[in-house]
Amino acid sequence: MSTDPNENKKDLSQQCESKNCSCKEDGFEQTFNKKTSRRGMFKSLTAGLMAGTGLVNSSCSVLASDETKEKKELEWEEFFKGNYQLMTDEEKEDTVNRLERLYELNHGKKSQISSKDAIKGVLYGYAFNISKCQGYMDCVNACVKENNQDRDSQMQYIRIHEHQNGSINFEDSDDDYFHEVPAEGHFYMGTQCFHCENPPCVDVCPVKATWKEKDGIVVIDYDWCIGCRYCMAACPYDGRRFNWSTPQVPEEEVNLVQHYLGNRLRKKGVMEKCTFCIQRSRNGKNPACVEACPTGARIFGNLLDPDSDIRWVLANKKVFRLKEDLGTEPKFWYFMD
């Protein structure tokens, strides 16, 4: 083949006389003669790499469907995206649109992935009424379903600890009980991520994959996480979970209403945790655990709103937090009636 680009173009054009040839639509005529955007040029480059890897041969015979090519292009763009914190609003929108399209191509269903930012004037807090919790674990089950947690490993963000009356010793408590509740002579306390004001997990992350949002929610960029588990070791409340294998969620049970920093589907080798159901809370709803609690033991709300239920609890009940001496300032309080 000649080294003259124009000569090469002429030779290849003579080879492509079929009406169905993809070159006529998006081949050399567009590449050489049409002005294109940065995004368009990126797609052209991707198409070239696809051709080089065998998806399309030099005679323009299509070996893969249009959807397969689209999927490869989207996966390529997804691989090179940046840290969510550094994305512009436009880049965030492109990212969630890309993930929605990939899920549709892979599963034939439409998902709704949000990139909604923190609501101005909102700082979330949580209170747990020890007197009311009966250990039913409805909250745990609701959390698993809402947040697309791995079924194989039975991952759970929430722990319900059964304590003997008169003692709060988590080393002696039972959080894996299989008997009728409430058990006589016992009381129950729930733990999860406490969304600390001074989160030690954030400080130790070497790649800045976890951070505290303006509304107080501590989040993780799953695609930036390298799975070193430093955050897991640093958390004094056992609030973090690690995916030792690819999370498995039955397709018919996948919650399709998601947030990029919340319950979207994860992968092997990354951390995850409670996000106060960010996909719900940023849309004015209670977390799934609060909604599912049959006894009203869980209270969630805006700490900056003087008329909120959480503020009433803090003002009228004798509250305490776990390990306050550490200075983590968890936004999760306990109280009793």
TrEMBL record:
The keyword Cell wall biogenesis/degradation does not apply. Pfam families: Fer4_11 (PF13247). Residues 216-245 form the 4Fe-4S ferredoxin-type domain. The keyword Cytoplasm does not apply. Keywords: 4Fe-4S, Iron, Iron-sulfur, Metal-binding. CDD domains: PsrB. This is 4Fe-4S dicluster domain-containing protein. It comes from Reichenbachiella ulvae.
